[in-house]
Amino acid sequence: MTDINDKTEWTLIVASLGDHELRAERDRLQNSIQHLKRSNEELEEFVKEDDELQEVIDDNNKVIGNQEMRIQVLKAEITKRGISHSEQQVENNGSKIEEITEDADETAVPTEADEGETVIHL
Predict the structure, then answer these.
(1) Of 71, 81, 79, nearest to 7 (Cα)?
(2) Nearest CA to 30 among 111, 107, 119?
(3) How many CB atoms lie within 10 A of CB 74?
(4) How is the chain split among helix, strand and coil, in percent rounded to 5?
(5) What is the pLDDT of residues 13-45, one digit of tens each?
(6) Burial status of residue 110 (CB atoms within 10 A of its CB: 0-12, 13-18, 19 or more)
(7) All residues at 6 or more sequence positions from 48 whose CB lies less than 8 Å from its CB, including other chains
């Protein structure tokens, strides 16, 4: 996905995305924010020893702010379209269910289901 800092430009891009792409991009950004925040917490421990680390933390915070803006635009478009903020996919035979929700643990790793198994991703 393109790195867009302008809200107006991002809004135009978001309007052209499909429903699945909206939720996938929202989830990707939420995951990225989670990792950046964790990274900042880890860097805070060493910032007194290395002044350059504060610069990294500041840069991460700028990226977090930008990504939060993009998530707001994505959520607004999802709501505007009247689609659910969670995704549920059921294969034709009904044996595999994937569910992704905003409150889900973003570090969960997708797994492949063997035939006949039910898989729920949270």
Answers:
(1) 71
(2) 107
(3) 25
(4) 55, 5, 40
(5) 999 999 999 999 999 999 999 999 999 999 999
(6) exposed
(7) none
